[in-house]
Amino acid sequence: MKVITILGATGSIGVNTLEIIRDNPADFEVYALTAHRNIELLYQQCLKFSPRYAVVADESLANKLSNDLKALDCQTIVLYGKEGLISVASADKVDMVMAAIVGIAGLAPTFAAVNKGKTILLANKEALVTAGEIFMRAAKQSNAMILPVDSEHNAIFQCLPDQDKHYDQLAISRIILTASGGPFREKSLGELKDITPDEACAHPNWQMGRKISVDSSTMMNKALEVIEAYWLFQVPVEKIEVLIHPQSIVHSMVEYHDGSFIAQMGSPDMKTPIGYAMYYPQRHKINVPKLDFTAKPLSFNALDGQRFALIPLVYDMLKRQDYAATIVLNAVNEVLVEAFLAEKIQYLEIIEYIERVLQELKLNKPETIDDVIAIDLKARRHVSVLLNTDKD
Ligand code: NAD
Ligand code: MG
């Protein structure tokens, strides 16, 4: 039986993880469940899974949840804030941590789990995007195993040689990241002016949280995933290729020098990569819709780098090893997506402001996690000032 903490239990990945545990109660003990503000769902989850700990954003939410649970004789202890997250991610008793908080908020608890040598089921790509070098070095030192949950990286992991699951230049010629192209793949930039948050969140293939759904529509998600693959598999950026594949059936591929391509395929359902990581190195039955190869043809297209300008931008950052820029990119995008979802800026302004801040803000490479957080804050402030000035 594996003891697991789920960071971000109330999100799309968290809920899918708990469904797998519900279907396999003998295989997992839930140590802790965390949420930010959705204490109604966290309350239901605590009653169902009886974790030893629950963690929420602040003290008043913690008091409310704790009183509600006590009223029903539930013994779960409720903690709060960053310290609460770090303590349940790094506790001695925990074997594995599902890192499924969205955004850089997931970095500190995930990093704490890495330092303790836990098995990390990594959905929170932002941790690698912002702190890849520091994160991977720490994992090596502590012997923490990083199992990618992001479907493309999970696919690549499955297609890489078994020995070390890393890029090997003697055997591998390319890593091919597939991208659905999101809901606006067929639209020109001119047609995107009046896109609403609900339109941007309506992904054709995947059911996901709102932030990553907007990122998929701008292809920021794929830009972040190029950085994620770069760190995770220690692969030179010129060996990573993005290929448009609108059906999201081939989740990614590895090309070997002998002409073989190994691809991982499946229905677009996050339970497959989540279950793979939860049971690694075994394979276990996971309840997902069966893939029907006769239902629709599979197609592939080259990426249009002019239309999706964020991708060439990220290749350039990685070639220059400008790792401060990757933090700025992530931070500014988080602020802008939140502003767009709150209908404070227009859809196309997300990309416009990202390009503007990247021009204006040049910072030094981070050496520590504190440096990463400082760069992140600086970038957030910078874009917030621009927004306040422009929108006054
Ligand atoms: P979501 O918005 O559905 O859920 C996010 C979770 O994080 C919630 O439990 C929320 O309470 C918690 N949270 C949000 N802000 C927080 C904060 N400041 N502090 C602490 N907790 C906070 O997101 P999601 O779609 O489940 O995505 C989670 C992560 O997984 C993201 O990094 C995303 O990029 C990655 N991911 C998701 C999918 C998917 O299919 N949903 C696929 C690949 C990767
Ligand atoms: Mg993905």
Automatic annotation (TrEMBL):
InterPro entries from the UniProt entry: DXP_reductoisomerase (IPR003821), DXP_reductoisomerase_C (IPR013644), DXP_reductoisomerase_N (IPR013512), DXPR_C (IPR026877), DXPR_C_sf (IPR036169), NAD(P)-bd_dom_sf (IPR036291)
Stored SUPFAM superfamilies: 1-deoxy-D-xylulose-5-phosphate reductoisomerase, C-terminal domain (SSF69055), Glyceraldehyde-3-phosphate dehydrogenase-like, C-terminal domain (SSF55347), NAD(P)-binding Rossmann-fold domains (SSF51735)
Residue ranges of domain DXP reductoisomerase C-terminal in the record: 265-381
Pfam families per the UniProt record, alphabetical: DXP_redisom_C, DXP_reductoisom, DXPR_C
Enzyme class of the recorded protein, top EC level: oxidoreductase
Family annotation (Gene3D superfamilies): 1.10.1740.10, NAD(P)-binding Rossmann-like Domain (3.40.50.720)
Residues noted as binding 1-deoxy-D-xylulose 5-phosphate in the record, renumbered to the chain: 125, 151-152, 180, 203, 216, 221-222, 225
Keyword Metal-binding set for record: yes
Cofactor: Mg(2+); Mn(2+)
Binding site for Mn(2+): 150, 152, 225
Residue ranges constituting the 1-deoxy-D-xylulose 5-phosphate reductoisomerase N-terminal domain according to the UniProt record: 4-132
GO biological process annotation, one example: isopentenyl diphosphate biosynthetic process, methylerythritol 4-phosphate pathway involved in terpenoid biosynthetic process
Domain 1-deoxy-D-xylulose 5-phosphate reductoisomerase C-terminal: 146-233
One GO MF term: NADPH binding
Catalytic activity, reaction form: 2-C-methyl-D-erythritol 4-phosphate + NADP(+) = 1-deoxy-D-xylulose 5-phosphate + NADPH + H(+)
Keywords: Isoprene biosynthesis, Magnesium, Manganese, Metal-binding, NADP, Oxidoreductase
Residues that bind NADPH: 10-13, 37-38, 124, 126, 209
Family: Belongs to the DXR family.
Physiological role: Catalyzes the NADPH-dependent rearrangement and reduction of 1-deoxy-D-xylulose-5-phosphate (DXP) to 2-C-methyl-D-erythritol 4-phosphate (MEP).
HAMAP family xref list: DXP_reductoisom
Name the UniProt record assigns to this protein: 1-deoxy-D-xylulose 5-phosphate reductoisomerase
